[in-house]
TrEMBL record:
Belongs to the eukaryotic ribosomal protein eS6 family. One of its GO terms (biological process) is translation. It comes from Sparus aurata (Gilthead sea bream). Keywords: Membrane, Ribonucleoprotein, Ribosomal protein, Transmembrane, Transmembrane helix. It holds the Pfam family Ribosomal_S6e. The chain crosses the membrane at residues 68-87. This is Small ribosomal subunit protein eS6.
Length: 95
């Protein structure tokens, strides 16, 4: 927006607009777009949906550890002993 208009006043010369996008029109003046992938399409987006990143950390809560490894409720779990090793394969992730 030009000087004298409401809603946006750049703090420095050449500063781009920080504003929310409503609708499908995206202007070149916007510096950052915050997006969320809602549904995966037929094709992959290179660098975004073509690679899977394994989880680094396992669950801490005892009930979630039991659920992950199908352990009975009577099983006592001590967290310092528990560690999760993740191996990445081409098609799947082994835990």
């Amino acid at each position: 927006m030009c000087k004298g208009h409401s809603c946006y006043r750049p703090r420095r010369t050449g500063e781009r607009k920080r504003k929310s996008v409503r609708g499908c029109i995206v202007d070149a003046n916007l510096s950052v777009l915050n997006l969320v992938i809602v549904k995966k399409g037929e094709k992959d987006i290179p660098g975004l949906t073509d690679s899977t990143v394994p989880r680094r950390l396992g669950p801490k809560r005892a009930s979630k550890i039991r659920k992950l490894f199908n352990l009975p409720f009577a099983c006592v779990i001590s967290l310092p002993i528990f560690s999760l090793t993740v191996y990445q394969c081409k098609s799947c992730i082994h835990v």
